[in-house]
Amino acid sequence: MRRLAFLFIIVFLVMFYSCKKTNIPPYAPSIPIGESLGFINTNYNYNSSASDIDGDRVAIRFAWGDGDTSSWGFFGAPDSDITKHHTWTEAGFYIIRAQAKDEHDDVSGWSNLHQIMISNFNK
Questions:
Q1: Which of 111, 77, 119 is CA-nearest to residue 95?
Q2: Is 24-119 a domain of CATH 1.10.3720.10?
Q3: Fewer CB near the terminus (10 Å): N or C of the chain?
Q4: Cα 18 off chain centre by
Q5: Domain ranges in the chain?
Q6: Residues 6+ positions from 117 with CB-CB distance below 8 Å
Q7: Distance between CA atoms of 18 and 120, rounded to whole angstroms?
């Protein structure tokens, strides 16, 4: 009888762990939307959104092309726009991209790129 109970427990555990749902990372976010021309020392807003096949809440961060990357921020509903802002202190061309993370800490790939040219002149 003990062997039968032990066998039942083993079968139950194998079935439980093999049926456990695996989380899928969110899709790469949409291309960041915002200005393409700007001025140094001026704050610019960019937004993006990401889908998650599991329906998990999603956070987005932005890489600004100047060595700075935003924090993840809050988790919002999938496909909702998330906005972050950034100020560049030097003139040049910068590549902005976004990355998503779901509430289970699975991370997407990076979005397609958005480019901004920052001018030396203040507004």
A1: 111
A2: no
A3: N
A4: 29
A5: 24-119
A6: 36, 37, 38, 92, 93, 94
A7: 59
- Dihedral over alpha carbons 8, 14, 15, 18 (to 10 degrees): 180
CA dihedral 13, 14, 15, 20 (to 10 degrees): 90
What the block records as the tokens of 82 is 């998330």
pLDDT value of position 9: 75
pLDDT at 10 over 90: no
Per-residue pLDDT reduced to its tens digit, 53-105: 999 999 999 999 999 999 998 999 999 999 999 999 999 999 999 999 999 99
**What average pLDDT does this structure show over 3-21?**
66
Beta carbons of 6 and 14 less than 8 angstroms apart: no
